[in-house]
């Protein structure tokens, strides 16, 4: 029996008016009678709420929707029928349906007693407005705000994307599994970003897939730079090379949207998988758009931070290289200063030796040993461009040749040079 085939008696004018007013309304309306709360009449919105397959009248509400029994709503009806006092509930959570059809909804509702001419309660009117979308919108905004705060706080990208995926899976009206893939810098491959509810073997298999036509929903969406909707993976040619992965993963539909930077650069893909073949509704597409933009913001922020860190590392490396060059220059300068000092000292020794040679033409001992002196025989004669000369041992002569540019081996008979070469 359909809801429009069971009007309330014509004598109850106000009830007939209510049925007419609520007939096409999105508000839920039902008229219940007796202590068993038999559904006398109800508008389409009421039956849509409890399930079109249960659109019957003349049946107690407890039999029509037995899942209500454990949630307190039938007890509230009993109380209104017994006391005659109306009851109003706000944002009441109701679980309707069972098994795969089970769903969570929220209602603002009122139970009003129906009375006869004597004022006795004969039944209850149920009037309600579903607030599920409002609740979901509130939760969506709260979760979205939390994600934005994470991005501002520079939370790790993996945490942001994982939280976003879980949020969407909780908010979606029907079961959905979310995946985010990240594009390589060259835009030719997609890497795993987040997919908390997809099987591990599936995530591993698609990690690194190429972008291009026919590479599933995500590879194709990345290549085309536009959303790709696959409503039935089993029959879609885009999934020819990946059906062997989708089937054991329990995936039957996949809608993928490219994640693009503000300049159009590919950042990745955002995908929603479903366990049954299904086409997206407007709400699904809107949800995908909202979170695709959020993912783009998170990924761009991550790239900016990574580039900043790389630049800081390059700058630090450059500073370190400059410091090394400065230290090397300082060492060279110190060594040059040491050589200059040694050169001056040796030149002074040569001059001192030259003065001593005025008395002794060929001394027996080395004259280049400095203040400490040198007991080695004087074998080689050296001179400088100023005409000063001295005799020294092989070690001190070599030191003079290395450190004093103007010093050279000097011997009229070349005996000094032979002694140096044969030392």
Automatic annotation (TrEMBL):
The keyword Coiled coil applies. The keyword Kinase does not apply. SMART domains: GAF. SUPFAM superfamilies: GAF domain-like (SSF55781), PYP-like sensor domain (PAS domain) (SSF55785). Keywords: Coiled coil. Residues 315-345 form a coiled coil. Residues 143-309 form the GAF domain. This is GAF domain-containing protein.
């Amino acid at each position: 029996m359909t809801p429009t085939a069971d009007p309330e008696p014509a004598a109850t004018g106000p009830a007939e008016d209510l049925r007419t007013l609520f007939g096409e309304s999105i508000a839920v309306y039902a008229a219940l009678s007796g202590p068993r709360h038999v559904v006398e009449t109800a508008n389409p919105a009421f039956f849509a709420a409890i399930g079109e397959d249960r659109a019957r009248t003349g049946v107690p509400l407890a039999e029509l929707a037995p899942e209500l029994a454990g949630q307190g709503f039938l007890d509230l009806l009993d109380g209104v029928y017994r006391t005659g006092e109306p009851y109003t509930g706000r944002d009441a959570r109701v679980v309707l349906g069972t098994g795969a059809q089970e769903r969570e909804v929220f209602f603002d509702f009122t139970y009003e007693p129906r009375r006869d001419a004597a004022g006795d309660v004969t039944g209850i009117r149920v009037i309600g407005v579903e607030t599920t979308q409002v609740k979901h919108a509130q939760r969506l905004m709260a979760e979205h705000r939390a994600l934005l705060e994470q991005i501002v706080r520079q939370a790790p990208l993996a945490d942001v994307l994982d939280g976003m995926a879980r949020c969407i899976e909780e908010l979606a009206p029907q079961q959905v599994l979310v995946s985010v893939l990240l594009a390589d810098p060259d835009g030719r491959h997609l890497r795993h970003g987040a997919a908390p509810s997809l099987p591990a073997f599936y995530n591993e298999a698609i990690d690194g897939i190429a972008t291009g036509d026919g590479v599933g929903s995500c590879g194709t969406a990345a290549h085309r730079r536009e959303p790709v909707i696959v409503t039935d993976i089993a029959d879609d040619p885009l999934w020819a090379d990946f059906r062997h992965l989708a089937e054991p993963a329990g995936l039957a539909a996949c809608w993928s949207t490219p994640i693009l930077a503000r300049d159009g650069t590919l950042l990745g893909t955002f995908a929603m998988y479903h366990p049954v073949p299904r086409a997206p509704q407007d709400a699904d597409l809107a949800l995908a758009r909202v979170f695709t933009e959020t993912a783009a913001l998170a990924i761009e922020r991550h790239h900016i931070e990574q580039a900043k860190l790389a630049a800081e590392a390059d700058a630090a490396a450059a500073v370190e290289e400059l410091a090394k060059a400065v230290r090397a220059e300082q060492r060279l300068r110190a060594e040059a200063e040491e050589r200059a000092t040694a050169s001056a000292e040796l030149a002074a020794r040569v001059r001192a030796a030259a003065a001593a040679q005025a008395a002794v033409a060929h001394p027996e001992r080395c004259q280049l040993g400095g203040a400490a002196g040198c007991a080695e025989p004087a074998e080689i004669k050296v001179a400088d461009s100023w005409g000063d000369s001295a005799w020294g041992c092989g070690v001190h002569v070599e030191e003079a040749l290395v450190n004093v540019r103007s010093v050279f081996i000097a011997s009229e008979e070349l005996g000094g040079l032979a002694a140096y070469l044969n030392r």
